[in-house]
Amino acid sequence: MWYLYILSGLGGAAVSLAIYILITRTVFKGRMKAIIDKANLEAESIKQQKILQAKEKFLQLKSEHESHVNQKNNELRERENNIKSREGQLKEQANELGKRQHDLDSLKGQLNAQRNILEGKIEECDKLTAQVNKELEAIAGMSASDAKNMLIENMKAEARTEAQAFINDTIDEARLNAAKEAKRIVINTIQRTATETAIENAVTSFPIENDEIKGRIIGREGRNIRALEAATGVEIVVDDTPDAILLSAFDPVRREVARLALHQLVVDGRIHPARIEEVVAKVKKQLEEEILETGKRTCIDLGIHGMSMELVRMIGRMKYRSSYGQNLLQHSREVANICSILASELGLNPKLAKRAGLLHDIGKVSEEDPELPHALLGAKMAEQYKERPEIVNAIGAHHEEAEMTSLIAPLVLVGDAISGARPGARREVIESYIKRLKGMEELAASYPGVDKSYAIQAGRELRVIVGAEEVSDEQAARLSTEIAQRIQEEMTYPGQVKITVIRETRSVAFAK
User: Fold this and answer.
1) pLDDT tens across 272-326, in order?
2) Which CATH architecture has domain 440-512?
């Protein structure tokens, strides 16, 4: 009977399982239906929201588009109105131009008619004038051109006579009124200003210790002395003079460069062409610095401030220049002091007068050296470096090459004359000699391919250094002949001048 119990238990379990499955399936279907219904509701809600958002965006874009279209339409209507207004203005202007053209054509016709009338009258007048001239020539016995020339000459002679008489009267009156006071001021100024008037020469003596140094300076076959002369433009005279070598050149700056370079070479002991060129270049730079320092000290000594550094450098260069044998810097300082005293006596600005006196000869130290008198060149340079108009005029007029427009100008003229008129202050021969040598150097330098030119041996020899790349041997020979011919035709000189053209080729390489 036990299997009946087992079978009945299994049957009950099966029935229970079937009932569970049925109930579970029913519950699952209910939940799934609820989930699906909820999802459908949410999807419908989202769909409605998106539709509403799309409608709002569409309406917004439609509104913006309509606004943009309206704006463009307004701009087009405005432009159309402007074009119509402009067309109306152009039509009015065209009508006005038409009226003016008509008036001009009418006026042109009237002018043509008047011109024809005038031409007829002019022809009639010319005929009458010619007839009258013929009658006058017959009566006077001379032609119209002869009578005109005679009248012009008589008027010129009468004008010259009247002008000369007026000038003489003016000069006499000025002399009577100003002679006594001018003499008093000038004499007082001369007595209060005193300077040495030593005259410079064109030779510098360089002391040496023994003849061995002479031999080292000369070098093998004279190559050292030739290199030194070529680098400095100074003639070096080595003779039997004991313990000395002479440096000869008309330019004091060149002599000073040669002296300082020789001193450094002798102290250093290395004397050869390459070293010579290096030392000369270094000395030139040092000398430029010394020139600037000299200019600064001069301005400080005279109490002059606020001057351009380029003008200060030119004042320093005056130390190595001379005017008719008189040191240019000493002369300029003396003129500055004289002008200051004269200005004080006359109640003028002494500082302004002193500044003009110091700068009056800066044209003599210009490196450009154009075809201008030194007074006008100095005035141009002073104006370039922002000096006051009174000073510029005083510099340009101190040799009466420009009109005096300031009260300082005659003071500079008088001060320059006082400084140069001292007994022994100047020597005319030196100045003319230096001008002649400079003229020879400038003549040679005007040829293409010339690097340097030096007048040596008191102007008896002109050495011209040319570039090997620009001038060939044949051209160098022809150049010496051409320079000699031009010197012979254009310059005045005693004796004869030897022209030496030097063409040197150098090859340089560096080992690294």
Assistant:
1) 878 888 888 888 888 888 888 888 888 888 888 888 888 888 888 888 777 666 7
2) 2-Layer Sandwich (3.30)
Instruction: Give 3-state DSSP helix, strand, coil % of the chain, rounded to 5.
Output: 75, 10, 20
Task: Answer for the pair 382, 359: CB distance below 8 angstroms, yes or no.
Answer: yes
Residue whose token pair is 């001021």: 185
Q: Which CATH superfamily is domain 193-302 in?
A: K Homology domain, type 1 (3.30.1370.10)
Beta bridge partners of 323: 326
d(CA 350, CA 333): 14
Would you list the domain boundaries of the chain?
193-302, 319-426, 440-512
C-alpha to C-alpha distance for 68 and 91, rounded to whole angstroms: 34
Taking the C-alpha atoms of residue 37 and residue 404, their distance in angstroms, rounded to an integer, is 117
Is residue 378 within 8 Å of 412, Cβ to Cβ?
no
Residue 445 and residue 233 in contact, taking contact as beta carbons nearer than 8 Å? no
Q: Are 379 and 403 in contact (CB under 8 A)?
A: no
Instruction: Check if the beta carbon of residue 225 is closer than 8 Å to that of residue 236.
Output: yes
249 secondary structure, DSSP code: -
Is 452 in contact with 467 (CB distance < 8 Å)?
Answer: no
pTM: 0.46
CATH of domain 319-426: 1.10.3210.10
Give CA–CA dist 356/345, Å, rounded.
Answer: 17
Chain centroid offset of residue 77 CA: 60
